[in-house]
Amino acid sequence: MADRHNRDIDRPLAPAPEALPTFCVDAHAHLEIVTNxxxxxxxxxxxxxxxxxxxxxxxxxxxxxxxxxxxxxxAANHWDSVILAAVALHPNEAPIVSSFDxxxxxxxxxxxxxRVRAIGETGLDYFRTPPExxxxxxxxxxxxxxxxxxxxxxxxxxxxxxxDDVLAVLQEVGAPEKVVFHCFSGDAAMAKICxxxxxxxxxxxxxxxxxxxxxxxxxxxVPAEQLLVETDSPFLAPMPHRGHLNTPAQIPTVxxxxxxxxxxxxxxxxxxxxxxxxxxxxxxxxxxxx
Length: 290
Fold this sequence. Notes:
Structural class: alpha/beta
CATH topology: TIM Barrel
Shape: globular
Order of helices and strands: HEHHEHEHEHEHEHEHEHH
Low-confidence stretches: none
CATH architecture: Alpha-Beta Barrel
Distance between the termini: 31 Å
Strand order of the largest sheet: 1-2-3-4-5-6-7-8
Largest sheet: 8 strands, parallel
């Protein structure tokens, strides 16, 4: 997984967009890759300050390995009015760790922390994982689903080139109450299936890419209460800054794109996304719990 989670430090930082009319939530970020620093560092604080300046005052920091999930929890505990954590073994990580049982044991323990509000990102990725490792990936996905149901927290799904199998596994074992498709990458037909099943679809900067008309069709179909917005920072900076270093401060561009596609007032769109974030992940306030 090292190649996926290394960033090019020479990439320019995407310039700040115009602020939103009210505060909103970045539902999926990887601040440790943005900053390459400790969870309580000044650099993380600056990313948070930059986000707040444009209307993003809450961030879900998402896990992809045992060690990095520990970073997520430490960040959530330190920045305890801003950050909540998700913990998991990424679908590309799970089949290749030296001991899945040991690493998943760490995830299971972290999942019970009060500021951990989701199990993710888990799921399936057939783009990077070869066929011979995909059954291990599916086994990991099932284990994470079971954990999400055990601790009654949201399940955050990574789905790349694996739409049918992700949906099939969820049907096979039974989905948790809250299912979030991170960086939704399906088409309108898949969005309809997910919406009918009550899943939450989270849209990222890819919504603004010229080669993603299917995402713009999909975002129009999702009931408002089943929408989230995210950066997946430091990846997927929205247009016109595709290829730049992405941070939570870029959320306003994606929210504006969502509002435009749905023909919705920007303030209304922002308020809906903010409320959805709190409903799915719970309060970000210090001392809060689900």
